[in-house]
Design a protein that fits this description.
It holds the Pfam family ClpS. With about 90 residues, the chain is of the alpha+beta class. The chain has a single domain, classed as Ribosomal protein L7/L12, C-terminal domain/Adaptor protein ClpS (Ribosomal Protein L30, Chain: A), CATH 3.30.1390. Helix content is about 45%, strand content about 20%. The protein is built from three helices and three strands; from the N terminus they run βααβαβ. A three-stranded antiparallel beta sheet has the order 2-1-3. α1 packs across α2 and α1 runs antiparallel to α3. The longest helix is centred in the middle third of the chain and has 14 residues. The termini are far apart.
């Protein structure tokens, strides 16, 4: 008969927690659909269809998340939206 030894190893895993933030675009009565669509395509790298869908959601729902990601990526994008006269915030 042979004896088998069991060894137990404790492995510690260090996970980096990445916090996802969102840019939320709010409705206003000032900007046109075309302006909002063009700005989303430029600032958030949306395709035409995605930008149009977001503009429609903002119009009918009052707000829409237009981009998610790390804060450092979203900050300049949100600034571009604000500079274009849109109402947006990072949450």
């Amino acid at each position: 008969m042979s004896t088998k030894e069991k060894t137990s190893e404790e492995v510690l895993l260090e996970e980096e927690v990445l916090t996802q933030n969102e840019i939320v675009l709010h409705n206003d009565d000032v900007n046109t659909f075309d302006h909002v669509i063009e700005t989303l395509m430029y600032a958030c790298d949306h395709g035409a269809e995605q930008a149009e869908q977001c503009a429609i959601l903002v119009h009918y729902k009052g707000k829409c998340t237009v981009k998610t990601g790390l804060y450092d990526d979203l900050k300049p994008r949100c600034s571009m939206l604000l500079e274009a006269g849109l109402s947006a915030e990072i949450v």
